[in-house]
Amino acid sequence: MPRCGSSADPSSAPVASRAVQSVATSIATSTKRLRDQAQSRSSSSSSSLASMWRDVQGSNNWRDLVKPLNSILRDEIVRYGEFVSACYKAFDLDSASKRYLNCKYGKRSMFEDVGIGNCGYEVTKYIYAAPGTETPRWIGYVAVASDQDEVRRLGRGTCS
């Protein structure tokens, strides 16, 4: 991700924009390939996540999940990659834009606008950073599971 504090020079924006677009394209391509592979596997892995979510989150240092790579862990890595890719896609690198170096989209529509609208999550907060005395810049978001099926899949009970 570009350094927030170094972007005052508009001439660096095209280079930064191409770099971020290249990274986003690479992530999107890899994510799509992995998602396609994940979808071709049995749907049993998503129902199993509820019983082993702590292990998938690293509570046991991913023991017995890495070699060979467990399909449930792989699916979760792909899912997190999609959320990271959403950040890159939402980051506004157009120096002529009023939202330059901030998120291009509103919280309610961000996931839809970046192509993952049915992910079962909703953005609740944006995260900003202010290096030095500069104006804070958008660096990411906080999202929570909002879909009952996603909450159950994660092994977290029910939404309230």
TrEMBL record:
Protein name, as recorded = Phospholipase A1-Ialpha2, chloroplastic
Give the similarity note: Belongs to the AB hydrolase superfamily. Lipase family.
Q: What GO biological process terms are annotated to this protein in UniProt?
A: jasmonic acid biosynthetic process; lipid catabolic process
| Gene Ontology MF annotations | phospholipase A1 activity
Source organism of this protein record: Ananas comosus (Pineapple)
Gene Ontology cellular component? chloroplast
Q: Which UniProt keywords apply?
A: Hydrolase, Lipid degradation, Lipid metabolism
Q: What InterPro entries does UniProt report for this protein, alphabetically?
A: AB_hydrolase_fold (IPR029058)
